[in-house]
Design a protein that fits this description.
elongated; single chain; 3 domains; about 45% helix; mainly alpha; Helicase, Ruva Protein, domain 3; Arc Repressor Mutant, subunit A
Length: about 230
């Protein structure tokens, strides 16, 4: 709404006051019943002071304001949004890709100054440029975030496994971690995805020293120290 020209703001204000619209060339107005949901990416009070927004329209629209925090302040939305944008990218490009827990954690620790729109474009670019032939994207190169990206929070990476594993065991470990992550740490759902019993999965968790906390995030080996 902050991008609307002043002349058009006046017309919108008239419609709000009269509850009428008049078609071009018409002699009489037409009564309408409507509601307006307006969004802004700028402080409207500042726009008013700068003469770019009408104060009367501001008070007419400011009935029930809702503030949506930036994406960096609601990191719990990042994973569901990633899955949604991955699904859209699959349909568009025909590439079936998933993200590993490490990749998800990298995305959670980025500041996303461009918010949801930046995340959407990032996921699309990631699917297009990924060279992981396994179908799962394990790591995200820091340069994909740009030269000026704030990656200071990426020091909270999950602990890597110190186990000595064969190639087949490493694949099994990755499959288990991915299933746990997709199921939000629910062991029964993870076992169902893996096609094994819950008891078998429990044995595998003990074998690979996999621990799941309630955030949920998956850690291999020791659980990281509690956050201050």
């Amino acid at each position: 709404i902050n991008s609307m020209p002043l002349a058009l703001q006046g017309k919108l204000l008239r419609v709000l006051e009269t509850q009428q619209v008049k078609r071009i060339g018409a002699l009489k107005g037409k009564n309408i019943d409507f509601r307006i949901i307006a969004a802004t990416n700028a402080d409207l009070t500042t726009c008013i002071q700068d003469g770019a927004f009408r104060v009367d329209l501001y008070y007419r629209l400011n009935v029930m304001p809702l503030t949506i925090p930036p994406l960096r302040e609601r990191t719990g939305d990042i994973i569901p949004l990633c899955k949604h944008f991955l699904s859209r990218a699959f349909k568009r490009y025909g590439k079936t890709k998933t993200l590993s827990p490490t990749a998800y954690q990298t995305l959670e620790h980025y500041d996303w100054p461009g918010n949801v729109r930046e995340l959407k474009n990032f996921i699309e670019r990631l699917v297009i440029t990924s060279s992981d032939f396994s179908g799962e994207i394990h790591t995200i190169p820091p340069e994909m975030f740009g030269a000026d990206a704030n990656l200071s929070r990426l020091d909270r990476k999950p602990k890597a496994s110190s186990l000595s594993l064969s190639q087949s065991e490493e694949k099994e470990l990755n499959d288990i971690v991915s299933a746990l992550y997709r199921s939000g740490g629910n062991r029964s759902l993870a076992a169902e995805q893996l096609g094994v019993s819950r008891r078998t999965l429990q044995y595998k968790l003990k074998k690979y020293r996999i621990k799941v906390n309630m955030e949920p995030q998956v850690y291999i080996g020791e659980t990281p120290a509690a956050k201050e």
